Amino acid sequence: MGSASSMQKSISSVGKKVTATSNKVQGLDVVQKLSMPKANEKWHSWKNALNQPVTGKKRKDCQESANTRETSEVSNEYHNGHKLNIFQDDEKNIRKTIELLKLSTFDAWKYENEELIHHIIAMFKDLHILDELGITVFRLHAWLEAVEKNYRHVLFHNFRHAFCVTQMMYFMVNELNLVKKMTILQIGILLVACICHDLDHPGLSNLYQRKAHTELSVLYNNSSPLEHHHCAIAFQILSDQDLNIFINLSQKQFSEVSHIIIQLILATDMAIHDQLCNKFNSIIKQGFCVNNPEHMMALQKILIKCCDISNEVRPLTCSEQWVDLLFEEFFVQADRERREGLPVASFMNRSQVHKADDQLKFIRGIILPLFRCLGKVFPDVNTKILKSLQESIRYYENMTTASKHENDGTDVSPTDKKETQKEAHKESKAAAKTTVSAVPKIVVSLPNGTM
Description:
By secondary structure, the chain is an all-alpha fold. Helix content is 61%, strand content 0%. Helix 1 crosses helix 14 (225-238), helix 10 packs across helix 17 and helix 14 (225-238) runs antiparallel to helix 15. The two termini are 39 Å apart.
């Protein structure tokens, strides 16, 4: 993980460097330099700062100013365009959609990005994050649109993936009753980190950045270059006053919030996976304490890591598409590396990848131990969430068996292979029974004449 000092230096210079990987931060008229927390700033008081409600004259003035400005700036795009109808009052549909969003079986493949944005708004409203931040639906929507525009149309690390990570965190918040351990603002920070965690991902891993000596790898000294870049883009977007969802926080609160978001996004670098898990297990042995800021920070890192690699927690009808897309993104990178004369990792080489075997290794070696880590604080994980992982294991075991029969020369008919896959998908569908085929379009109610 990169140090806070390198983060400060990196983000302050990102206005110059961001053009190396993306032409422009979409949604901003001007790319501004960012003012980040001091490198060595002590943050052990973060919980107290975050627990302070944004109240008093400062919040009132900020809110009145923001509301006046935003109300006067409701553009023709909202008044005359198609977007206004998505915020119309339909509480019944909102509640129905929210109940579906609370399930790990939620199928994001059924929706376009604009609809996914409205689902995120529904999550924020349900958790009262908008009230806590003192912002309007339109400010949140504008920020989400800018974020969505700054995700590239790559195969796996795109806005849909960011949504899935966010929705899984929302599922965790509800399933594990996180509101009893965290404040609303802390939960909001977790969701924001999920939404931003892969911003402007080029579809080329940190491994490629290092091997190709890209400008990002040089800028961040080969220390989590992509994750640092995701942070940089996230805070460039927030540097625009009209897109700053933390506009009503005090300077101290924003400094603390920024630090936590950065730490959470950096935690998604798989290169430091073992380091973070070992630290969390060490904390568990000492005795996890919800009032200890270091313990809570470690827990939040484990939570975002779980959500980032949580596809296998979902039914196979949702998760297998993600597996195929990730492999395809790897293959595209491998093809590029060959063209550039760079070495190719075996797990990205088409001729060396065995989907079922590789997935079993990943589930057993990475996903299961990670969720078991979380299960030491939340025992419900072991009974509810791990069940889905066991179903995935059975599916890929069956696939491996069929593949071995083929290699051994055993006569396996196409019908038998199909039946094996059908059986596994059937089990997966049974788990997803609660998800209906058509979910109503999300709508969010607004006070008359306000944003």
